[in-house]
Specification:
The chain has 308 residues and is mostly beta strands. The chain has no helices and 31 strands. Helix content is 0%, strand content 55%. Keywords: Metal-binding, Zinc.
Length: 308
Amino acid sequence: MEILTDGLRFPEGPVVLPNGDLAVVEIEAGQITRIKADGTKNIIAKVGGGPNGMAIGPDGYLYICNNGGFNFVEMETPLGKILFPHGQADDYAGGSIQRVNPDSGEVQIIYTQCNGRNLCGPNDIIFDEQGGFWFTDHGKNDGASRKRDIVGVFYAKIDGSHIEEVIFPMENPNGIGLSPDGKRLYVAETYTCALWAFDVVEPGKISPVANLAGNGGHFLYRPEGYKYFDSLGVENEGNICVATIGTSGISVISPMGELVEFVPTLDPMTTNICWGGNDMRDAYICLSGTGKILKYKWPRAGLKLNFA
């Protein structure tokens, strides 16, 4: 394991760019940052709010789930200073889906609503092979009003012509990914620390099954102990790698819902993973609380994403 870079302000949404550079969002700084192989950084775009998930679209642009912003607290710990999100930002004005030109840094907003309802806290995003994208809305916790949003999972097109809430209700859905054959959609809930699988029957459509949660999914896995699930990535052979907060690291879960292994990290706010390199075994893990990117030679290849 090595630290590729540090000094980031709550990095998330890692994406390996076509030239091999890594791009991440910095939620607290409201920006997209490029990281080169030697760890040097430069800003791609200032997007404001709280950029969270990110993916490359069929047009080569970066698509951003912007949660509208968090308040943050920075605490001194034995690991050093750690940044923690703490409720919605004081200037929160809603969530959005943004499109960013990675060359010019131009930012466009393509969605802020679905069927007249505002997006609350878009969180993570994945493109299917048809060029549409699934995304989670994590919602917001408002301590002042003691309210928490009831939210779901959406499917949309990049030209702004279609957005639909496909899965509802969910408890603060966070990470999202597709199986290698595209026939299963995986969603991790944060506070229940549950991983769900949904049967995809056509672009933007699922075949729901009956369950106690009422969301139409198959329950796959929940770890023991007090933990949270964050974002996720999928390996080439189908395992689901879920960033795990608390007892921090990456939980590797088989498509059958069995724990394959747990890869520990030193940051309690370990939030995401992606892969790059010629063999797709260079794993980049977001150590968000300490503002670092961990580079690790993963034991198995990550799945090459559509359009990445």
